[in-house]
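Two quick folds needed for the group meeting slides. Do the first one here.
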Amino acid sequence: MKKTTILIADDHALVREIWSLVLNTDPELEVVGEACNGDEAVERAGQLKPEVVIMDINMPGTNGIDATEIICRTLPGTKVLGISLHTQPAYARRMMQKGASGYVTKNSSREEMFKAIAEIRNDRKYVCEEVKNILSQQVLVDNGQDMLHLLSQRELQIIGLIRRGSSSREVAEALGISVKTVEVHRYNILKKLKLRNTASLVNFMNNYQVEP
């Protein structure tokens, strides 16, 4: 069985050694080389032509992002799997823009690393679960912020009072309007935000930490 050849690029010798030991436990993988910085990663990749380069982002000299761009441009047969302590989706996005086929964090498990390598070897993209979960939360927050723009200033005042625990009567007294008017506003707020009840409204406001 032909093994998938791997080059590991990281500026910490112990990290490279551990990855080599872990990856070589898989009979389908073979670590064929190491690099301690971006320049060496480019040089070693050109010499060895590995199928996969595991590329740390933060390295001295030429960083992993720039090294990825060079390798992907000059060695189309080599896939790059970015790895970093950074969990922010922006780093994964930047690596992918430079040509990387995948991105995992240093919190990823051994099993996820194996899965990522298998996916990119089969010409598929891979982003680890940790980054995808963070990205999903950001999307939810962005969507929530967009929905808040649908509310009028009066409606924002009302939900601010509701969040503090005020009843419809207390809201009416605070704003100098009738209870019936407050109830109409509450109905419209729930409808605009696509929420079912006051409890879900309070939860929504707490999640997005929005002040009226």
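Then this one, please, same format:
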Amino acid sequence: MSPVVRPALAPGSRIVIVRHGEAVGGIENIVAGHLSCKGLTEHGRRQVEALAGRLRHTGELEGAVALYSSILPRAVESAEILAPALGGLPVQSTCDLCERHVGDADGMTWSEYEAQYGVTTDWSSDPDREFAPGGETWMGFLDRAEAALYEVMERHPGRLVVVASHGGVVATSMKRFLGLADHGAALRCHPDNSSMTEWSWTGARWWLVRYNDAAHLDTQEWAGDTRLRIPAPGWVQAETQEGQPELTGSQQEISGSKM
């Protein structure tokens, strides 16, 4: 892929990236690409509905001028749930905002994938390797997702844009906008389902307004009687058990996928 062209954005341009709700593919433990994504679970719909209720109540994204999503059903469904809370904005879908393209692994279980292609939780070992034949490399995905985020912001200079997308796209924004190492060894993101990550361009640099804001998943007013937040992924628990120090309550609050 050609190097990312970074356009000159208008100062005050803002983007909020919403990770989709819990997906059927995640529950079924499959590599859910373009062919096998089955959209949101009922729990996932409730997560995004909780965010929509919060936005209606707070008006914190008032003034959004555009709503984008990837073309994967889990992101499209999330955007459609949010649209009424954003003034009925039409959903504009583009593959450029999709999660990493998985090629021939589409529809495999993660166990089948790891048996055939090896465990690939650390892409720093070979960031130029395809996810599977016909899929994207890690570097190719980062370039494509970064270019997509710049493109949607460039279309709406100085305004607020909302994007319903994926954990990998959130991670791309963290790595590229903050200038972190692409291999990801220093930072591994796992934003909560339906969380918001917001950026603003000052004209000189990126301002990270918030990361992984999912307070609505814990607030009875929007989540109801059941907590909607999903527990930390297995790799977090495994690393903790292997000798990483346990986080205190305050540390957990400030610490930051499978698809």
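Slide caption for protein two: The first strand starts at residue 13 and ends at 19.
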